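User: I'll paste a sequence; please echo it back and then give the predicted structure.

Assistant: Echoing your sequence first, then the prediction.
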Amino acid sequence: MKAQADDHVQNVGVEMINTAFTGMNAAERVAWLHDQFGSRLVLSSSFGLQAAVMLHLVSKNAPEIPVVWLDTGYLFPETYQYAEQLIEWLNIDVKIYQPKYSAARQEAVFGKLWEQGSEGVNRYSLMNKVEPMNRALTELGADIWISGLRKSHSNTRADRAFAEQQKRTLKVYPILDWADAQIASYFHENNLLKHPLEAQGYKTMGDWHSTRPVGENISAEQSRFGGEKYECGLHLSSDTNDYQI
């Protein structure tokens, strides 16, 4: 009976957010989320190419929401530098979470997992992304996770709703319906700092060993993990994700 009751509460939350977001702009969505759910919220950020948009929206409309940054230890040097700039500029509350195994220890014990086919990549994602995010949600006492995911990022995200239940966590996407042009316009209107690697042809951003610039005949989706994988495990659809989040 309790499980059925919990499912009902979760479904009500998903339906409420999906209905409410339809008539709001992104700033209103962020403010409304904080008003409705308060300390149950966290925002995750990769400090990637478009991360400044969600970070700016939160800093202006709900600065109390903590930001979870998953530091794999394999980010580009430029990403670390960019993150420090944004943190200082926006004065955001960033909680840094790292894998239980450092980069050096991982390679010594398991080798270069990203070079070990799909099984190795999945294990890498679990160790470096999924487990730290689970830990962050638990330690911060949050069960509602805000992400800057957008439909136009990839084919795997095209059918998403503004809110969805992923295991025990309610995930919410305030800029899900934004096109690339809206992102560019927001950067311009708010004079946001850009990731330095954008000028070098990168269209998506991840770890240095698994991300490459987009050249001729290479899409953004193909620029991650040699084109074999785009999602790291954090943003798989709720009906295919077997992880704990």
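The longest helix spans residues 117-140. The CA atoms of residues 165 and 171 lie 6 Å apart.
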